[in-house]
């Protein structure tokens, strides 16, 4: 109980995405909500669909996208470290089947053997970076985004670990399809000067063309 006259400040506002970032991520979420693809076992592949679209954007932008999908982080490090490509440090390293028995033990500071389910690694849905020319290390993370489609709850420890990756609780954002205005038939370009949107505006243009097979009104802005 608070002392008389004292005020206890309780945060009530959940962290949110900036407008340009929300438009980009929601473009993929809405598309995958409607046409997710179906796995061999009959499972809806909505999460995989979103990741595939954002990864494709990253490739188009020569791995200089602001939006990094499914980078794996080593949670035994402080701060957690992403596994990066040996040549392109803004690209995720491709981890092959059995890598936990070959690559993982090469770092003597890691617990060995690798035990699945112990939280040694985490892979957030999306990392939004401040500078797309630099790797998604904690000092370059703007926000960590976890997309939750209906029926996909957080696993034990998952949300807390994502806060550790972000380095700040305020940088951890959960996004659900009902936050994306997916009922709109066609995305509207934001009424914000292009020069204020930067790369996000360019990505919006690319997404628009990919979805509607035509340039967006006003063309794709340079960045």
Please render the helix and strand layout as text.
Blueprint: H1 19-34, H2 46-60, E1 67-69, E2 73-74, E3 81-82, H3 99-102, E4 121-122, E5 126-129, E6 141-147, H4 158-166, E7 172-175, H5 194-197, H6 199-212
Summary, kept brief:
By secondary structure, the protein is of the alpha+beta class. The chain is built from six helices and seven strands, in the order ααβββαβββαβαα. A four-stranded mixed β-sheet has the order 1-5-6-7. It has a three-stranded antiparallel β-sheet with strand order 3-2-4, covered by helices on one side.
Structure description:
- The termini are far apart.
- It is built from six helices and seven strands, in the order ααβββαβββαβαα.
- It is globular.
- The protein has 223 residues and is of the alpha+beta class.
- The strands form two sheets. The chain has a four-stranded mixed β-sheet. It has a three-stranded antiparallel β-sheet with strand order 3-2-4, with helices on one face.
- 28% of the residues lie in helices and 11% in strands.
Q: Please tell me how large the radius of gyration is.
A: 19 Å
Work out the number of β strands: 7
N- to C-terminal distance: 52 Å
Overall pLDDT metric:
84
- Strand and helix order: HHEEEHEEEHEHH
Level of helix content? Answer: 25-40%
Number of helices: 6
Helix-strand makeup class: alpha+beta
If strands are numbered along the chain, what order do they take across the biggest sheet? 1-5-6-7
Largest sheet: 4 strands, mixed
Q: What is the global morphology?
A: globular
Uncertain parts: 1-6, 217-223
Note the beta-strand portion. 5-15%
